[in-house]
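PROTEIN DESIGN WORKSHEET
SECTION A - STRUCTURE
LENGTH: 282
TOKENS:
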């Protein structure tokens, strides 16, 4: 026979054949209240700058996480999420990186979760971007000699709306002309007829805006400090570098004069001669 009893504290029990088992407490409760997010949607942003997003988040218990979700409105790029920082008792802040601030705008929302797992999310908001800056080329140019020419490559910029690259070539850095639109290829092969010509590479976005290009560079594969690009750093290179850096006349570069056998090197005998001919402090 089963009998239901209510004991101290309002707990109900079921008794069967003299054995009592606990079923539930009338005072047992669960937190089902989600956090509250107070936020005024941002409407505008400038290209080339990150965008600060702030919100006041509160909860009847404790906040576990507040995230900023965002994506540039380009194609089907998925949302990225960054944990927002607590800057005060309830003020949270996070930034949308400048690389995601594109001419097409940015969509974002804020999501908060409390310790009980209750979640709340703001409606999606769209930011209009005043875009006047194209992708900036900041990486190092790589030039590698291959059969028949040179392979030139570079790391892509971070801009989410990158549309392509333009290669400029000319006899000097002041006479560069557009040579080729490379689309999204971040490398190009130039045959040996381009050797010693000057190049630069720029990038442009889906709005056609072209950003800061690479520094101008010569089409040649050289060792560091190999000024004459003969795959050997010798006295000729030292002389050229010193003349450029120090604006010294050729007659002032005594190590070159000390190369008595003309092999573009300083051997032990020649180095000894240099030391012997150094002026004395006396």
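SECTION B - SEQUENCE
RESIDUE ASSIGNMENT:
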């Amino acid at each position: 026979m089963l009998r239901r009893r209510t004991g101290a504290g309002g707990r109900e029990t079921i008794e069967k054949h003299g054995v009592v088992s606990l079923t539930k407490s009338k005072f047992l409760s669960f937190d089902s209240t989600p956090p509250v997010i107070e936020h005024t949607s941002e409407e505008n942003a400038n290209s080339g700058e990150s965008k600060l997003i702030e919100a006041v988040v509160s909860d009847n218990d404790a906040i576990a996480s507040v995230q900023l979700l965002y994506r540039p409105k380009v194609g089907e790029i998925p949302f990225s999420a960054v944990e927002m920082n607590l800057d005060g008792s309830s003020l949270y802040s996070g930034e949308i990186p400048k690389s995601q601030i594109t001419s097409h705008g940015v969509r974002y929302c804020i999501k908060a979760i409390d310790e009980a797992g209750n979640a709340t999310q703001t409606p999606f908001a769209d930011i209009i971007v005043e875009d006047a800056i194209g992708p900036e080329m900041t990486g190092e140019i790589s030039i590698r000699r291959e059969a028949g020419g040179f392979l030139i490559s570079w790391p892509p910029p971070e801009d989410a709306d990158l549309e392509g690259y333009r290669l400029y070539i000319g006899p000097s850095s002041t006479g560069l002309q557009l040579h080729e639109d490379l689309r999204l290829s971040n490398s190009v092969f130039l045959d040996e007829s381009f050797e010693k010509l000057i190049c630069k590479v720029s990038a442009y976005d889906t709005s056609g805006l072209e950003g800061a290009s690479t520094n101008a560079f010569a089409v040649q594969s050289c060792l560091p400090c190999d000024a004459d690009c003969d795959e050997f750093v010798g006295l000729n290179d030292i002389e050229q570098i010193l003349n450029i850096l120090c604006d010294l006349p050729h007659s002032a570069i005594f190590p070159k004069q000390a190369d008595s056998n003309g092999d573009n090197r300083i051997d032990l005998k020649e180095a000894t001669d240099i030391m012997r001919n150094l002026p004395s402090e006396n």
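SECTION C - NOTES
The first strand starts at residue 2 and ends at 6.
The CA atoms of residues 167 and 201 lie 5 Å apart.
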